[in-house]
């Protein structure tokens, strides 16, 4: 670590054994996930607050290379196990490990990036009532079948209805799946 770890005790006395435990957790994070350039751990003693009285709170802020950061600040307020300091510390570092795992996977391209949801406007509904055509933002027309409309909402769709959809290649060209109505009777935007 480029900067020595900072351990801040608030509302309780500093303890060499707790400092040692926190240092071991930090060293384990560095061994498993690479270089941590700075680390600040804040340990707050039990408070008199109505909802979280008697529970310890542990916040961790890690600074990684290239300006990346990981913070663990949320302490479960209803978890009575946080009345034990060692459990609260172990739980906070467990959450930090999970965040670092996700961060490493993302950097390695292992986390699937979701594509943006496309939107369009319905331009035609077939007289048979089994399919329709929508126009995308770039002016292309895309077919959709009533079975691809979510929440059995096909009968509420008319020309001019705004929808979101996923586009895929069908037998006769592009087609929309997962069609959802936007606005008052569909998705909120």
Give the DSSP E fraction (strand runs of 2 or more residues).
25-35%
Main sheet makeup: 5 strands, mixed, barrel
Number of strands: 9
Residue ranges: pLDDT <50 for 5 or more in a row? 185-189
**Tally of individual helices:** 2
Shape annotation: elongated
Terminal Cα span:
44 Å
Helix content: 10-25%
What letter string, H or E per element, gives the SSE order? EHEEEHEEEEE
Structural class: alpha+beta
**Sheet with the most strands: spatial strand order:** 5-6-7-9-8
- Give the overall pLDDT as a whole number: 83
Radius of gyration: 26 Å
Topology summary:
Blueprint: E1 6-10, H1 16-33, E2 38-44, E3 57-63, E4 69-72, H2 85-107, E5 118-125, E6 131-136, E7 141-145, E8 162-170, E9 173-181
Parallel strand pairs: 1-2, 7-9
Antiparallel strand pairs: 2-3, 3-4, 5-6, 5-8, 6-7, 8-9
Helix pairs in contact: 1-2
What does this structure look like?
With 189 residues, the chain is an alpha+beta fold. The chain has two helices and nine strands, in the order E-H-E-E-E-H-E-E-E-E-E. The strands form two sheets. The protein has a five-stranded mixed β-barrel. Strands 1-2-3-4 form a four-stranded mixed beta sheet, covered by helices on one side. It starts with 5 loop residues before the first strand and ends in an 8-residue tail after the last strand. Residues 185-189 have low confidence and may be disordered.
What brief labels describe this structure?
189 residues; alpha+beta; 5-stranded mixed β-barrel; 4-stranded mixed beta sheet; 2 helices; 9 strands
